[in-house]
Design goal:
By secondary structure, this protein is α/β, with parallel strands linked by helices. Helix content is 36%, strand content 23%. Strands 2-1-3-4-5-6 form a six-stranded parallel sheet, sandwiched between helices. Strands 17-18-19-21-20 form a five-stranded mixed beta barrel. The chain has a three-stranded parallel sheet with strand order 7-10-13, with helices on both faces.
């Protein structure tokens, strides 16, 4: 007679499909979600049509991100017409912002789950399977998911995200994150180190430490009352293995310290790259954004960083056309780019988000055409500097970590330099996960092109 255990083993497993939108933190969260659902008996699938549950892990930072999710929900609901038992869930920041509106007005989802309620997913899915709608958007002051080992989704087996904290206490007037992800709290460093060690044992060669503002990481051991700063955590992670590259994102100009920079200088395997969002080059606009620093403060931080790390790669975020931005303010942003000479920029036009201080107190008074023109001027200026910087690398040899095939040809490999610049070169006998020295013989504004001349044992 067949045992109960055998019957259970023969039962078809339910399948979970997850799509992630927005920032790196959302992609990291999806790996936590997958772990929770797999522990509940699901298996992960990359084919949406065969899934029993489809989750969209969403972003609310800009309206177009939410519109993409709504369009995707329309498409998934076409599948649900043929399979009424399909469970559709919206997770993350959009779920937290809109809450029950997604259930009541949109009528396209079965469950709505905020970023701090993922442990409740098995119960919520069971509720939805019984025919009821389910929601949990409770924001926690303690949840860090520190004890959950993420399931690496769509991983290249080389690079991984490690979340070190959640939430944000920086009430920037344009941003919804403090309202969708809650207050700042830091994860126990011992769990971070353990996760990093497991990644190294699994063959990973690069980790990126994630937080809305990593520089404000601070974990106090309740037993000893000793606090661990971000600089200390960064060094602990770097010491896990000399063959592990360590990156981090994102830093805040008001919080980045000289201790962090000196830690980078002291540890060769901490990548020589910092993403330091400026948002605007105008002190007036920075004040309206509630960024709590001035143009001068930001440039002082850049000077401090380059004093210790002269070859550092720098990137930033800039918002074009924020409330009350004049042509003079815009010119100050352009001059900031000229002074700093960033390696990369991530640029956006201002997009008013409901519920933020800017939406409540400031007038979105810059015409859309003006926003787009200013954005294009920022893009064009940065592209010219990126091209100049990349041209200076021609004739030099760089060390890169190979992370896979080039996007344009499977006969070429790609990787990134210490400063985070993409390098593409002929595959030959090299393979993913190796540290390779590449001689640079040409470049574009975004990519270095070259020839591998040897590899480093690792």
């Amino acid at each position: 007679m067949e045992s109960l255990e055998t019957k259970i083993e023969r039962m078809p497993q339910k399948k979970l499909y997850i799509e992630s939108y927005g920032c790196q933190m959302n992609f990291s969260d999806s790996e936590v979600v997958a772990s929770i659902m797999i522990a509940d008996g699901y298996v992960s699938t990359k084919i949406m049509e065969e899934a029993n549950a489809v989750f969209l892990n969403t972003c609310a930072i800009r309206d177009n991100a939410e519109q993409r999710v709504r369009q995707r929900l329309t498409e998934i609901n076409q599948v649900k017409l043929k399979r009424p038992d399909l469970i559709i869930g919206v997770l993350g920041c959009m779920a937290e912002r809109l809450k029950t509106k997604l259930l009541e007005e949109e009528k396209m989802v079965d469950i709505v789950v905020g970023p701090d309620a993922y442990r409740d997913l098995p119960r919520l899915v069971a509720t939805a399977e019984s025919g009821q709608k389910a929601v949990n958007v409770f924001l926690s002051r303690e949840e860090t998911y520190a004890d959950i080992s993420p399931v690496r989704l769509d991983a290249n087996g080389i690079s991984a995200f490690v979340s070190i904290m959640r939430g944000c206490d920086n009430m920037c007037s344009f941003c919804v994150v403090p309202y969708t992800r809650g207050r700042e709290r830091s994860r126990d460093p011992e769990t971070i180190i353990q996760e990093t060690k497991e990644l190294v044992l699994a063959g990973y060669r690069e980790v990126t430490l994630l937080g809305q503002n990593v520089d404000s990481y601070k974990y106090t051991n309740p037993a000893s009352t000793e606090a661990v700063s971000f600089a200390q955590l960064l060094e602990l992670v770097a010491l896990v293995s000399p063959i592990l590259r360590v990156r981090f994102s994102t830093s805040h100009p008001k919080d980045i310290t000289e201790d962090v920079i000196l830690t980078m200088k002291r540890n060769e395997n901490i990548c020589n790259y910092i993403h330091l969002p400026v948002q605007s080059g105008s002190t007036k606009i920075l004040a309206l954004m509630n960024r709590t620093y001035t143009r001068e403060w930001y440039l002082n931080r850049i000077e401090m960083i380059r004093k210790h790390l002269p070859d550092v790669g720098l990137s930033s975020d800039i918002i074009a056309g924020f409330c009350n931005e004049t042509e003079e303010d815009h010119q100050e942003t352009l001059s900031m780019i000229e002074i700093v000479k960033y390696d990369f920029l991530y640029n956006f036009t201002y997009n008013e988000r409901p519920g933020t201080p800017a939406a409540k107190k400031l007038q979105d008074d810059v015409p859309e055409a003006t926003k787009k023109r200013r954005l294009q001027e920022i893009v064009d200026l940065q592209r010219s500097y990126s091209k100049i910087l990349n041209n200076t690398m021609i004739g030099k040899t760089v060390k890169i970590l190979i992370d896979g095939d080039s996007k344009k040809s499977n006969e070429m490999l790609r990787g990134r330099t210490d400063q985070n610049t993409v390098v593409v070169f002929p595959k030959e006998n090299y393979k993913k996960g190796e540290y390779v020295y590449v001689f640079i013989n040409s470049s574009t504004s975004a990519t270095l092109l070259g020839q591998a001349i040897g590899f480093e044992l690792n």
